[in-house]
Amino acid sequence: MRSETPPIVRLADYRPTDYLIDAVDLDIRLAPDDTLVTAELSLRPNPAGMAGAPLRLDGDELELVSFALDGQTPPAGAWEASPQGLTLRAPPQRPFRLRIQTRLNPAANTRLMGLYRSSGVYCTQCEAEGFRRITYFLDRPDVLSVYTTRIEADAAEAPLLLGNGNPQERGELPGGRHYAVWRDPFPKPCYLFALVAGRLDSVSRTFVTRSGRPVQIAIHVEPGKADRAAYALDALERSMRWDEEVFGREYDLDVFNVVAVSDFNMGAMENKGLNIFNDRYVLASPDTATDLDYANIEAIIAHEYFHNWTGNRITCRDWFQLCLKEGLTVYRDHEFSADQRSRAVRRIADVRTLRSAQFVEDAGPLAHPVRPEQYSEINNFYTATVYEKGAELVRMLGILIGPEKFRAGMDLYFDRHDGQACTVEQFLACFAEVSGENLDHFARWYSQAGTPHVVARGAWDEQAAVWTLTLKQRTPPTPGQPEKRPQVIPVKMGLIGASGREIPLEPDGDAPLRGDVLVFDREELTVTFRNVTERPAPSLLRGFSAPVRLDVNLDDAGELLLFRADTDPFNRWQAAQNLMLKHIVKDVAAIRAGRGATRPGEPAFIGALGDFLATEGGRDPAFAAQALTAPGEGDVAREIGADIDPDAIHAARETLRAMTGRALAPALREIHARADASDGADISAAAAGRRALRNLALDLLAAADPEEGAELAERQFHAAANMTDRLAALNVLAALPGGRREAALAAFEARYRDDPLVLDKWFAVQAMIPEPDTVARVRRLMEHPAFTLTNPNRVRALLSAFSLSNPTQFARRDGEGFALVADAILAIDPKNPQVASRMLTAFRSWRTLEEPRRDQALAALQRIAARPGLSIDAQDILTRMLATK
Ligand code: TRP
Ligand code: ZN
Description:
Elements: E1 9-10, E2 19-29, E3 35-45, E4 55-58, E5 63-69, E6 79-82, E7 85-88, E8 96-104, E9 114-118, E10 121-125, E11 145-154, E12 160-163, E13 166-173, E14 177-188, E15 195-198, E16 201-208, E17 214-221, H1 230-247, E18 255-261, E19 268-269, E20 274-278, H2 291-306, E21 315-316, H3 322-340, H4 343-362, E22 374-375, H5 384-401, H6 403-417, E23 421-422, H7 424-435, H8 444-447, E24 453-461, E25 466-474, E26 489-497, E27 502-503, E28 513-514, E29 517-520, E30 524-529, E31 536-540, E32 549-551, H9 556-565, H10 569-592, H11 604-619, H12 621-628, H13 633-640, H14 646-663, H15 665-674, H16 685-704, H17 706-719, H18 723-734, H19 739-751, H20 756-767, H21 774-781, H22 792-805, H23 807-810, H24 816-828, H25 833-840, H26 853-865, H27 872-882
Parallel strand pairs: 2-11, 17-18, 18-20, 21-23, 24-32
Antiparallel strand pairs: 1-22, 2-3, 3-8, 4-7, 5-8, 6-7, 9-10, 10-15, 11-14, 12-15, 13-14, 16-17, 19-20, 24-25, 25-30, 26-27, 26-29, 26-31, 28-29
Helix pairs in contact: 1-2, 2-3, 3-4, 3-5, 4-5, 5-6, 6-7, 9-10, 9-11, 10-12, 10-14, 11-12, 12-16, 14-16, 15-16, 16-17, 16-18, 17-18, 20-22, 24-25, 24-26, 25-27, 26-27
Bound molecules: tryptophan and zinc ion (ZN).
GO molecular function, one term: alanyl aminopeptidase activity
Protein name: Aminopeptidase N
Organism: Camelimonas abortus
């Protein structure tokens, strides 16, 4: 067991290790509950460390079998070992070798960190601090070593033996055993170590790098599922080519292996030459995966592959620098996806995620800077802020210095720091150098938490043909940071005249305008534009050029003008969102005042949505689907900010959807009928776009007329030639109480009974039903034979779908929703603290709820906190969530 009170680790306390580990030779003899690990470490004193210091190696729940220094067991008193560490009091002040044997029980490892078994396959997960569960080590990212790994296993149980680097040797052994030796020539931190051993089916091909080197790329999956790995292999090949073309980065080993396992704490892991994936981000066929699943697979395959340069070849000095690899790599995978599919539609989807996950985090008790300054449990810092906001900071950098200098800065970074463990400062210095700009102020984005709130006001002087823009920024306080200073905010902008034309930007004086980017770096800025001869609607923050909240206070006419005529597709979408959001927020107030949501007449924007559908629906259906999708209940809650009543939000949003569906019914019916049966199993982005619009049409029709919707959905459900259409129909049916819903759910269950990943969709659909019976339904489903608390995907499908996507039932006034999730967290925590603490974050907005919901949430959190023996992971989240500022 770990210690009771977690020590706090601080960035300010960083110092290099006193010893370096140049080489690691591992011999791992696998057996399900008795694995023997022999580690031979070549160490030497670190010239940058303290001479003569003791050596303290990290461990976590380890059992030591034997220990030797240069071939001999040192005398008692010279060293000491416990499950948590091994200390050598006075190591030699010259190169020396340690031989450490540990015994592991992979079958009993339910934390899914270190070496464990998943459906009979041996696999590892070492980031962030899992290697210390395999052997005693300097488990931190600034210790880089060359690894040789010999893996031995039963040949029948584990015909496939994979390690990092290149295969060196393999052979048979007596007693039905066999072995393989892998060698990774690239020095790496231990968090990138991996091995896999098991019975797996594979798809593979040869990728030839642009300099002509052949690489054997392969995807390994559960036996019988190789046909579902074809798409991932294709995405991998496209990722490799893209990184060559766009960033000039080539792959560097002879092989690249990807393994899919069914028990995995997160999405995937970038181990050098041996990526290990949650199988839900590998396996796909038209019958089992939705278009969203395909897009996620493509993005995550790319993400892990891109880590080979941003993360592996250049790694992090310490875990405070996590965004150095994660933010940058998310930026790279966003760009890749934008190039593979529609750029505008990808950007909209990415910003939706940013706002629904990161903005919420930034506004609550778990807010932290992109580069945190302290942590007690590093696993709790793999957050939307580090990943998604971290990616936005890289994007802003590109906007500020321009694409050519950005690429030059990346080239310099790769060139200068290859093989090193780096900091954010070293990264930024490369861009400062190539651009000649001082990025000190920009660097504040990494240290200051919170989402800046930008208020923009325009004034048009018709006589003088002058338009004046005033910008103000303010960042609300976050935990530990009561005072905030202004950020450098790139505001990409344009002006759309009342006639619909784009007005050229002619700023007065020394306005900080670079091209179409206004560099807004102080509390308040006023800029005057000349020759504005017609009333303009400002199109600000085009493409979402900065991760801020923007309040422009345009009237409906201005928003409608942008929706119709803006040349920036993101802002066209944003204008439609603003119009719908304003309407919903007004209705929420009306509902709460007891006036009901229905007001006479139909707002003008509904007509505009109809016009838009008629023109854009055929041209870019994916974009049209995004524009017609109402803001989510979470978006509305964020807009309202405090004293949240999820039932009123739900009702107001449904009212808008019904109104939209009624007003556009003829067009929606035609769209739904037109595409009927046309796309089948075509998984192209174009076909996915048509399906998105068609299924949105179904959804709106059902909102307007449940009877009509149910009939259409039922037909679609049975006729569907792909999972996207089938699941969309099931979602519509699930929202309508009665026999039809239960029949469809039963049919889906029968069809996919033996397919856990598909049953996850079935669990999630039911967990999201916004009805009071859902709590009982979820409790019932937890007893379903396919459900288990030990598989993170099952837990997320049922319980995270409930806590994150069913706000009316999770935040029930009687507290039953919170109690359900609290019970699950308490049951999971002893087995898998990482999954439990992530589930806890679903409570992060609890203080914004109205009474009595807020009190109910507090009661649930206090009940969890009172449980003795709670993991450090869970304690860390609870402490921050319950802190009174
Ligand atoms: N580095 C991984 C990625 O983003 C994610 C990761 C971190 C992870 N810690 C993990 C995955 C623990 C699984 C388990 O690409
Ligand atoms: Zn990553």
